[in-house]
Structure formats: C-alpha cells, structure tokens
Amino acid sequence: MSQPVEAKSSKNKTVQLITDKEKAQGAEYHPQILNEFGGAWESPQTKYVVDTGQKIAFQSGLANSENDFTVTFLNSPVNNAFAIPGGYIYITRQLVALCNSEAEMAGVLGHEVGHVAARHSKKRQSAATRNAILGVLGQVAGGLLGNSGGLLGAFGGLAREYSGALAQVLTLKYSRKQEEEADDLGIEYLSKAGYDPMALSDMLSSLALQTSLDARIAGKSSNQVPEWASTHPDPAKRVVRAAKNGGKYGASTYRNADGHLRAIDGMLYGDDPKQGIVEGQKFMHPELRFQFTAPTGYGIENTNNAVFINGSSARAMFTTQAYSGNKASYIQAAFKAVSGDQTINYGQVAEFSRNGFNVFSASGVASTNSGQVNVTVTAYEFSNNQAFHFVTLTPVNSDPFVSMINSFEKMTLAQANAVKPRKIDIYTVKRGDSMASVATKMAYENNQYERFLVLNGLNSNSQLQTGQKVKIVTF
What we know:
Blueprint: E1 6-8, E2 14-16, H1 20-36, H2 46-58, E3 70-74, E4 81-84, E5 88-92, H3 93-98, H4 102-117, H5 120-123, H6 164-170, H7 176-192, H8 199-217, H9 227-230, H10 235-246, H11 257-264, E6 268-269, E7 277-279, E8 282-285, E9 290-293, E10 299-302, E11 307-310, E12 315-320, H12 327-339, E13 350-354, E14 357-368, E15 371-383, E16 386-395, H13 402-407, E17 409-410, H14 413-417, E18 422-428, H15 435-439, H16 448-455, E19 469-474
Helix pairs in contact: 2-4, 4-7, 4-8, 7-10, 8-10, 8-16
C-alpha cells in the first residue's frame, strides 16, 4: 500500500491526495450508486458536465490530474449532487437543469468535493444503525409518519440491499460546521478556477426554493425536505454566509450563463419514461404498461426504486421485489422489508381478481410515534416471476387509498405510446411577455408559475427583459 501524499491548497492548508484505499472504496461503491440513481446519463450534455466537474474538483488538490476524477452525470429526476472518496463525483440531470450558469453547477460540485477533501466522511457521527434504513443518500423518503426509525421510518427496508459501509459513507448528515467548511472550500475552488465565487450562494438559494416547492407538490410539510437539501441544513443562513464569504475573493464575474443554457437546451427533464412518469394525480409506466391514480390532495414522488404517495394523514409506496409465484412468501417479505425492528402481525392473505390482474393482499396494525396505523400490502401478479405491490399506511378507522388501489390497471398500447417525456427548452423573451405569460408555457397541470420562477432563479419582483433567455419545460 502506498503512503499518503500531501499537496498544498491555495491557502497553504495541507490536503492529502486520494489514497489507494479510497480509490478501492470508491470503485466498490460506484456501481451501487449507478443502480440507485438510474445509471449514467449519456447525452449531448455529458461532456460538458464531466469537463466542468473535473475542472472544479482539480482545484481541491486531491489529485495531480483532472483525469483522476470520475465525474458521472446521473439519469435521475431528483435534485442531487455528491462526491465520495476515491475521486468519484456525481450530479443529476435535474440539478444541472436547476443551475442557471456553469459557475453555479461548478459551485455545487465544488461544495461536494470539499466534503471529500476535508475527509468529512471519516468524522461523521456513527449513526448508521438499523441497517441504514434511511436509504442511500436519503433517497428513500424519510420519516413518513414522524418515526425516524423502525416501522417505515423511511419506508426504509429498500436500502438493505446495499452494504452497511455504503450507507455509512452516504446517508449520515454532516454537521453545520462541516457544511460551512464545505461551502468555504467550494467558494475557494470557484475562485481558483476563475469563476464568480458568488455563484455558490445563488445555487444554494435555488436549491432551498426548489426543495420547498418539491415538498409542497409532493404533499409533504416544509420540514420533510427531499434529496440534496435534506442532508444540507440551514439553507437560508448558508445563502447569506456564502454570499459574504464569496465577496472576500477576487473580482471575477465569470459564470457562462449563456453557454450553460445552450448546453442544456433540449435536455430530458423530470421523469424518464423508462422509469415511469407522473402526470397530475396519475402515475404511468409506459414500458411496464400500468397506471394508477392517487387521491386528490396527495403528492406523487417517483424514485428509481419506488413511487411514494404522500398526504397529511396517510402514506403509500409502490414498489417490487423478488417473486417466485408464492403469494404468501411475497406478502411476508413485503411486510418484513418495511417493518424495521417491529414485527407486524397481519391477517390471512386474500386473493381476488381486479382489472385483469390476480391480486393478493393482507393487512395488519402497527405502532408509530403518531399512534397506531393500518399497514396493508396489496400485490399485483404480472407473471409467474414478477409482481408489484402497494404498501399503505392509513388511520385505523379510514383508508383514503381505496380508490387508488382500485384504479391500478393495464395501459393500452395507444396509451403507452401517448406518454411524452418533458425537456428543457430555452425560450427568448419577446416584447410584451411577462413572467406569468411565459409560465403558461410550462408543461405542467399545476404550479406553473412557481415552477417557472424557481427553475430560473427568479422571484415575484423580477422583471423579464426582451431578448432575455429563460428556461421553460415543454413536452
């Protein structure tokens, strides 16, 4: 094993170069991360993202060459970026779309590299207990009924297929001090690379606003924030702090906003049809040819491993697991996957037919921090070796998901072919356009105006200028 080599940063701080052990660790985790986040996204934007990521990572002093960093552009519809020891850096296409300039993208990547450079993963508190049921990077939504562990604390057994070591590297939250240190390093890297060091503050602001909007759309309270911001606390304070620190550096104002917008024009946005698409209250999977409709007032959140249906008093998850044709074993495994430390005693497995599917279901009662809830598993047999199922958590005396369970049905070929992906479209503001009028071009049934503002880093007091380029989402 080689001995660690040290390099100097621009502030004469000692930075340890990537070790052989870290390289081996990163290589082990990398394929698991690709599986969790929909794989690497090969597109016209890939080279742009990789080049920018390697450029900003090189400023850390972790390696002697930009090529020592493996930057992956992930096919994921969630806002996320992260880095792990060994020179592995990741960013999702959704977060790239949220960035309004190359500098903003570099800033958020620089922040993540800063965590690695400071070896924060070695310093985090040892909290990866309960088989790391918070899931890889908190990707499986946490605390669905206010229960941080045990029964469906994160609808959480989905992460158990991952190694405990991977979960320890990725799931634990950083301390406030560590977040601030990573912000400082990210700003330093921006300055060293010739970017406007104020860009990170703007990116943090966009992330905070997008996180809040996502939570509302998904039917969550504002303190149940998803994805990147869930492990990056105090966004408002960090925006102000990052802006103050960014002002201490040179006068560079280079952001390359126009180049960034040109690069992402036409890029896939939101759900990939291969992973299913959310349209209003309906979830459709054109490749597997099924669809269902969530109750009014409930948000739908699509991830690589499951679909979550969130409401104020009830939660549901739609997912799959191994199936050999044994219905009782499938139901048992589904309960076990979400029960954590608690054993759920459920009743007899009922079998029936609905909408052309063989259906099998069982229910039990479980205790949470919010009291007792009904837990029901309802599975649909697609073939002798494939099944999918809902897990629903509902109040003991009511079940708002009856209509959703009954709505599960096969899609016709015509319906599947009619599903259209969304994409980023760069729109040039015309004379007479207003933010409200341009927002109507957004390909959504709800929250068009709010989505438009957040996507472009605007607020209700902003003014559009003729000839200005903005992002809209179209089919």
